[in-house]
Design a protein that fits this description.
Helix 7 crosses helix 8. It is built from 18 helices and 25 strands. The strands form six sheets. It has a seven-stranded mixed β-sheet with strand order 1-13-12-4-11-10-7, with helices on both faces. It is globular and about 65 Å long. Helix 6 links the parallel strand 10 and strand 11.
Length: 528
């Protein structure tokens, strides 16, 4: 491996010094002998497979969990077992992978919650709005301070979480998968914020499964495996493949290499818009003249028509909040149509319930696993049959033996960790929660798959597996509509690529005609 390995603590004063932490939850060991040393003025990447204990260790640092053993020091002071309020007061802020926002409050109200500016006895909301606007401009994280959080896209909600931590003056900033819902330009804006914080003496710990981001922005990397830290090395001189090998102990075929130059011949024959006319004979999913409204009542999708053939992955790229969510919800039966027609294998879906659509062969991996994909307090086994309970029912009720056999098969096939079907989904890492959803939707017979952010928060080994499953489904004649904020994922998987902007497909191109440089202007609206 090219990386410079080191088991020694870094030189100079440490902002974070975690030594030999142990943390268990019942019979599940989340951290065992976990250590982390990060000096002031550094961006430090914390990487590892799903369930490696990264988020748990950072929650110990942020005061959410008290360790069972070990020591935690911040800026030289022993803070082992401190509370979240003490951590925030000391300038330690954590941006969580799953949002901790109040949906009925505005962006500004969420950002200042608990430390609201006041005018006498009353909260000074105009001042809060002004301060959040100023912070947005300074950080380049643009969001409407007066918008309700309930009305925000997933990407916008992520920005609010980051703003919350920065508003509280965080000097040690922990980011758990912060770019999962950001476009490439937004990621670069975030890097500018983090580098400015680092150059000002602040410290950043970045948890991410996007290894190109690790190389792009971090100074040092710590790798965790099975709850323990296994290696620490400088970022300079290493590659994403080196990091993946350290994480999983073997070479990983990422399939995420950037595409080369645009194929001019392919581009000359590519359509700049979806083709009109009669549907293709091999089309399994047909969307025609679709008009949808957002939850606010504003237009979300306008006059959208496209088809996905059997044996094809149509990848939809674009900045979140441009109608992708509404499109998938309409096809899945979760949102009414204002106008238009949707067909699955020539069967009109209008009037069919979600269950009837599933029985007709439609699977749906939702973009937000907590809102749409899981019941967190249900067991892994029960989550694996959600929406399919009728397939596991006898006259006497649910067939528990059948459910347990099914769970054991899917847990093994999709490598859900820990492999304990009776464990509540809430006890699993975000990546393993995602695997439950993937297993349920891809582990049954289907003809058309709606896959929204299928690898969000998932480690490189699981990404490799999920991508292989998607390709295998495509090769078996399934039609797949893939929507991902990760452009590299779209380019790695799609046969055709559509860019969605303001509720329309502004271009549809064959994959061989695509590159990040070509698609970027369409994603931001800079191209016609």
């Amino acid at each position: 491996m090219n990386a410079v390995l080191s088991t020694d603590a870094p030189s100079g004063p440490l902002a974070i010094d975690i030594q030999n932490v142990v943390k268990t939850f019942g019979g599940v060991v989340a951290n065992r002998d976990a250590s982390l040393q990060v000096p002031h003025g550094e961006i430090h990447a914390l990487v590892g497979e799903n369930g490696a204990g990264k988020s748990t260790l950072m929650r110990v640092l942020a005061g959410m969990y008290a360790p069972d053993a070990g020591r935690v020091r911040v800026n030289g002071q022993d803070v082992t077992g401190w509370k979240t309020t003490e951590a925030i007061a000391a300038g330690v802020g954590m941006v969580h992978q799953h949002f901790m926002l109040v949906p009925t409050l505005t962006v500004a109200e969420n950002v200042v919650l608990g430390i609201e500016p006041r005018a006498g006895w009353q909260v000074d909301l105009p001042r809060a709005v002004r301060e959040v606007e100023a912070l947005c401009r300074k950080c380049g994280l643009h969001v409407d301070p007066e918008a309700l959080v309930a009305d925000l896209s997933v990407g916008e909600a992520q920005r609010v979480e980051i703003l919350k931590a920065l508003y509280r003056g965080a000097r040690v900033l922990i980011l758990d998968e912060p770019t999962a819902v950001l476009s490439p330009p937004e990621v670069q804006e975030l890097w500018t914020v983090l580098r400015a914080l680092r150059d000002d003496g602040g410290t950043v710990v970045l948890i991410t499964h996007k290894l190109d981001e690790v190389i792009d922005v971090s100074d040092t990397i710590t790798v965790m495996r099975a709850g323990a830290t296994v290696s620490r090395f400088a970022t300079a001189g290493t590659t994403p493949r080196d990091i993946a090998r350290a994480m999983v102990g073997r070479d990983v075929n990422l399939h995420l290499d950037a595409l080369g130059a645009v194929d001019a011949a392919a581009l000359s024959t590519a359509s700049a818009a979806p083709t009109a006319g009669a549907p293709r004979r091999d089309a399994r999913l047909v969307v025609h003249n679709l008009h949808l409204r957002s939850d606010r009542g504003t237009p979300a999708v306008s006059d959208l028509s496209f088809e996905v053939a059997g044996g094809e992955i149509l990848g939809v790229a674009g900045v979140e909040g441009n109608g992708q969510t509404e499109l998938l919800e309409a096809i899945a039966g979760l949102r009414p149509l204002q106008q238009g027609r949707i067909e699955l294998d020539a069967r009109l879906l209008s009037g069919l319930s979600v269950r009837q659509r599933a029985d007709a062969g439609l699977s749906h991996i939702p973009e937000d696993r907590h809102r749409r994909g899981l019941v967190l307090d249900y067991s892994i086994a029960d989550n694996l049959i959600l929406g399919q309970q009728h397939r596991f029912t006898t006259r006497a009720g649910l067939d528990q033996a059948h459910i347990q056999r099914h769970a054991a098969e899917q847990v093994a096939r999709f490598d859900i960790r820990p492999p304990l079907p009776a464990l509540p989904a809430r006890a699993l890492s975000g990546g393993n929660q995602q695997k439950i959803v993937i297993a349920r939707e891809m582990g049954r017979d289907f003809g058309v798959l709606l896959a929204a952010q299928p690898t969000r928060g998932v480690d490189v080994g699981a990404i490799e597996f999920i991508h292989a499953q998607l390709r295998a489904a495509r090769d078996a004649g399934k039609a797949i509509l893939l929507i991902s904020a990760d452009l590299s994922e779209v380019l790695a998987l799609a046969d055709r690529v559509a860019v969605m902007y303001r509720g329309r497909f502004v271009t549809v191109l064959p994959r061989q005609a695509c590159s990040a440089e070509l698609l970027g202007p369409y994603m931001t609206g800079a191209a016609a």
